[in-house]
Structures are given as structure tokens and as C-alpha cells.
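Usage

Read records sequentially. Each one opens with the input sequence:
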Amino acid sequence: MTGQPNTTLKPSPDEELIARILKGEKRLFELIIRKYNQRLYRIGMSILDNEAEAEDAMQTAYIKAYEHLSGFEQRSSFATWLTRIMLNQCYEQKRKNRHVFTNIEQPDNFINMKTPENELAGRELNNMLQLAIAQLPEKYRLVFVLREIEDLSVRDTSLSLDIEETNVKVRLNRAKAMLRENLNSYMKDHVYNFHLTKCDRITNHVLGHLGIV
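and closes with the structure output:
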């Protein structure tokens, strides 16, 4: 005799927190903010490409999420729901910014302005790339350097290394895959990283705006 399947799903940690927040434990919303700060920051930077704008979008997204928390119907995960709120906020800000900055003349080097932070990040990334390339096996490193750095054509690379053009393409793809693998941990740790001080600032600002002490 087989038993009936258990159709009761255990609430996720997010859902448990939300339930408690809605019952009055408002301070627990801080745990939500700290949990998702990194994700929302990376989304914001990916779309807005501006730290201040990304942080503004994060704060607004959290406030909107809190104010509509009772309307979260769990049709998707809370993480997905919050991500969509952030995406919508970023796109809304991007539309507004496009209108605001249309008639503002920016210097030619605006994007490439040199700051100590930008220069340091550039040097670190350059060093990491050089190290990653140096760690490639020679046959892959040669193809990568000739094709991607020296801009040789597939044919010229083939002739230079005395290998078939098909091999050039295969080796280049393999070199790129190996570089991605070598740089993966660096990218996760450094690209759009949301440090603790930023996390505290966003958390305190949102909680203060919502009157949660």
C-alpha cells in the first residue's frame, strides 16, 4: 500500500522571513537587504554603469519591495520578484537619464576619466590578464596573442604557425575557454563588487526611510 504524496512544500527562508516581517517583525527586512545587496548592485551597474545611480535604484527597489510585500503572491521566488523590481527601476532611471542628459555636452574623455580608483583597477585587471595568458599552454597562447592581440587573420595565423585554419579556430576557442576559467574567480571577487561599507550604507538608508529602527 503506497502512501499519499506529501504536497506540503516547506517555505523557503525568504518566505519565512517575509511572513514574520508582515506579522510585525519589521527589523528582519535588514536581512533581506543584506542578502540581496550584491545581486542588485551588479544588476544596477550592468544597466546604469554608474555607482551612484545603481545605489539609488537599489534603495528605491527595496522600498518598493517592502511597501508591496503583502502583494508578493509567491508565483515565483522572492529573489526573482525582487530582481524584477530592480530591473524595472533601473530601466526607468535609464529612460529618465537619457532624457535629462540629451542636451548636456560631455567631454570626450568622460567615460575614460582617469581617477586613482580607475587606474588601480585597470592595473590590477591588466596584471591578471597577463598572468592568465602566460599560464596558457604555448600552442593556445600563441594563437590567442596573434589573433586577439596582434589582430592577425585566421589565414595569417595559420601561415605563421604552420597549422590548418581549422586548428587556429579550435585553439582560439580553447584559449578563450581557459582564460574564462582562470579569470572566473577574479571576476566574481572584483567586478561590480559590493563592499561591506556600501552594504551598510544602503541598508541603513532603506531602513531609515521606512522608519525601521
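Summary fields computed downstream for this record:
- Confidence is low (pLDDT under 50) at residues 1-9, 101-113.
- The chain has two domains: 13-100, 116-190.
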